[in-house]
Amino acid sequence: MTAPARDELREHLVQTMIAGDVATPRQNNLKHYRLMADGEPYYQLGLELKPSWTERTVLEMMVERCGVDPDPGHVYGDDTIDPDITLDMLEAMGERVGLAARRAETVLIATGHPATLSPVYQAVAHALAGAGCRVLTPAEGWTYEIDAGWGGSETRRIVYAEGGVAMLEGDDGRTHHTHDPRPMEAMLRELATGEPAPVGRVSVIAPDGPTGEKTEVWPDLAIADHGWAGAAGQAGIDTVGFADCNDPALFAGAAEGKIDVVVPLDDGVSPHHYAPMTAYLLGRAGLLPSG
């Protein structure tokens, strides 16, 4: 496999609706922008964002960093993602992944979209491991309870796909979508202390905590999305990853300097459509021949 040229990938992104005109409803985007600005924890994705955000400034930021429709009067229908921003950020992500490969860095890789994005992360994990990076797998099997939405609760546990990609699994044996930062917080807590993280909300202990002693293993880079990325960025780890146009918190985190690179894309298309994008990313990282 070789990486496609930029123009070829741009055409593919638009044709498959990974970018360009996307299927994410505008009304859903605006609702999420408002709730993030209001400080709702679910929409903060583990980040402690500045309280100065408003729905208007979030929209303006998303126009700049994602390419959504700038018209505040567009309140219903589908929205857009600028494919050139997607490509620019994909290239920036590739540069950071390539640096990790050259330095043989220690990395964490995780996804809240196992049904669609896990092949992307697994390809990156395998490439980095092949370049000499250490892919960490802390807190495997850690469990906690979530509100199931029908008056009960369900168990979620951290599992790792082949290559070392963290995701959540339920008691039904299936992997599950999540925005929750708590699993990444549990992983970082275990890395920082050497002790299993407690169940429930986890406060992350920095690697150079009150004693001044650094943990033996701490990630140089996190490659992730949703709350996995937000919690890593909040902990001060170099963080790159993907976000849809209805997940403004990671873009806000990038604007505040807590997230290094956010690649805008529709994160819910068929998994095979991401293969050319994955090849382009690895090509930019120097981990795959370029076409």
Question: Can you put this structure into words, describing what you see?
Answer:
It is a single chain. The chain is 36% helix and 19% strand. The model is unreliable at 209-214 (pLDDT under 50). With 291 residues, the protein is of the alpha/beta class. Helix 2 (26-37) crosses helix 3 and helix 4 (83-103) packs across helix 9 (275-284). The chain has helices at residues 6-15, 26-37, 55-65, 83-103, 118-130, 182-193, 226-234, 248-255, 275-284, and strands spanning 20-25, 78-81, 106-110, 134-135, 143-147, 153-161, 165-170, 175-176, 221-225, 238-243, 261-264. The protein has one domain: Rossmann fold (3-Layer(aba) Sandwich). Strands 3, 4, 5, 6, 7, 8, 9, 10 and 11 form a 9-stranded mixed β-sheet that branches.
Summary?
This protein is of the alpha/beta class and 291 residues long. The chain has helices at 6-15, 26-37, 55-65, 83-103, 118-130, 182-193, 226-234, 248-255, 275-284; strands at 20-25, 78-81, 106-110, 134-135, 143-147, 153-161, 165-170, 175-176, 221-225, 238-243, 261-264. Helix 3 crosses helix 8 (248-255) and helix 4 packs across helix 9 (275-284).
Q: Give the percentage of residues in beta strands.
A: 15-25%
CA-atom Rg in angstroms: 18 Å
> How many independent structural domains?
1
Specify the biggest β-sheet: 9 strands, mixed
On the 0 to 100 scale, the average pLDDT is 93
How many helical stretches?
9
Q: Based on CA inertia axes, which overall geometry fits?
A: globular
Catalogue the unreliable spans: 209-214
InterPro entries: Phosphatase_SCO2771
Protein name: Phosphatase
